[in-house]
């Protein structure tokens, strides 16, 4: 979901409480805080030696504190997102949520909808993959993840 879409839902329902649903159906506890709005762009090299770059995303860090009476309204959430304008390149970027339950994980925001119980933000899954493996399969040559690959043996990747 794009940041512009999320902001529009929040603006249209400023007094609504915000619920965040995890991919498995559980929810981030209702007393969560949004503690950071970040701009994330990543440059990296895969295990096969190819350079990659991801486009900018808006990363929202959540925190569940001891203040169990805290409730984030859509209006307050929107104001926090507006503060992010100082670090975000523009609003036409995807949004992800960072949540720390037992480990810190990042989830893409799939949707945000207003309903009778407030705004529900639905999170999706984010998975890792070996990028060199897909290149090797396409070229029919052993890549980092292919059997007998010298790179795989040296780097110990994908194994």
Total count of helical runs of at least 4 residues: 4
Overall radius of gyration: 19 Å
Shape: elongated
Q: Kindly state the mean pLDDT as a whole number?
A: 88
Task: Walk across the major sheet and give the strand order.
Answer: 1-8-7-6-5-2
State the end-to-end CA separation. 34 Å
The helix fraction, in percent, is 10-25%
Main β-sheet: number of strands, strand sense, barrel status?
Answer: 6 strands, mixed
Order of helices and strands: HEEEEEHEEEHH
Give the structural class.
Answer: alpha/beta
Into which percentage range does the β-strand content fall?
Answer: 25-35%
Instruction: Report low-confidence residues grouped into runs of 5 or more.
Output: 149-156
Please report the total strand number as a whole number: 8
Provide the number of structural domains.
2
